[in-house]
Amino acid sequence: MADGREPAVPGQLELSFPPTENEKEQEAIIEAVLFTMGNSVELRQLAVAIGQDQDVARRAVERLIKRYRSSKSGMEITQLEDSYQMCTKAAYYENLIRVAATPKKQVLTEVVLETLSIIAYKQPVTKMEIEKIRGVKSDHAVNRLVEYNLVYEVGRLDAPGRPALFATTEEFLRRFGVGSVQDLPDVGPEQEAEIKAQVEEELQLKLEALPDGTGQEMAEEAEQEMPEGLERPEEAEALRLKEAAATSEE
C-alpha cells in the first residue's frame, strides 16, 4: 500500500492504526475547506482539494467525523447525501443564542407539512400530482416551502405544458435530522388505515355541517378521488414526529 501498511486479509480482524502524517494533512485540508465554505461540500470537491480519489477523500472525512465526535469540540461534521458540512453541535444551541440573534425557524402549518410530506415521499413530483393527492389547490403551500428553502424546482416533466418538478433540499435534511430521504420513517399499513379512518371521519363531520344537499354533492366528488386522495396524512404525521425528534436534540 502507498502508506506502507499491509492490506487487510479477508477473515482476519483489521487492526486500527493511527493516521499517518499524510493522512493527517488530508484531514487538515478537508477541515479547512469545510470551515471556509460554510455550506455543504460534495465529496468529489473534497477529493480535488486533497489531490486524491473519492475513496481516499471519504476515508479522510470519516476519520475527521470520528475525531470530532470523540472530542470536546463544539463543532461536528454532518453528512448530507454525498456532501459534508461543518456545523455547530446541537448541544450548544442554547449557548449560541445568548450572543447571537435568535434564529428564525419557520412554523409549518398542517397544510404546509402535509404538502411537504407528499413531496418528500413522492419526489420528484408536480403540483398537479400533489393536488390530486390532497384534493385541493397547493400553490400557496408549495410556494411557501420554496420560500423556506425546504423544496426546490428540480426540473420539468416531459409532458404537455412541461410542469415543474419539486424535490426536497439539503435544508430539509438538516431540519428533519436525516442524512438522506432514504432515512425517512417508513409508514406501515396499520398506521395508514388508522389515520385514513380519522381523516374520513373528520371529512364526514365537515360535510354534515354544510347546507342541505351541498355536503352530499361534495361527498360524491370526494369519493371519486378517495383511492389516492387521503392516504398521505400518515406520512405527514411521520414527518412531524421526525421533526420533533430532530428539534428535541437541539
TrEMBL record:
List the coiled-coil residues: none
Q: Which UniProt keywords apply?
A: Cell cycle, Cell division, Chromosome partition, Cytoplasm
Tell me the segments the record calls region Disordered. 1-21, 209-250
InterPro entries in UniProt: ScpB_csome_segregation, WH-like_DNA-bd_sf, WH_DNA-bd_sf
| Keyword RNA-binding among record annotations | no
Instruction: Give GO terms for biological process.
Output: cell division; chromosome separation
Entry-linked Pfam families: SMC_ScpB (PF04079)
Report biased composition (Basic and acidic residues) as residue ranges: 229-243
Q: Where is the composition biased (Acidic residues)?
A: 218-228
Instruction: State what protein this is by name.
Output: SMC-Scp complex subunit ScpB
Q: Which organism was this protein described from?
A: Enterocloster aldenensis
Gene that this polypeptide is encoded by: scpB
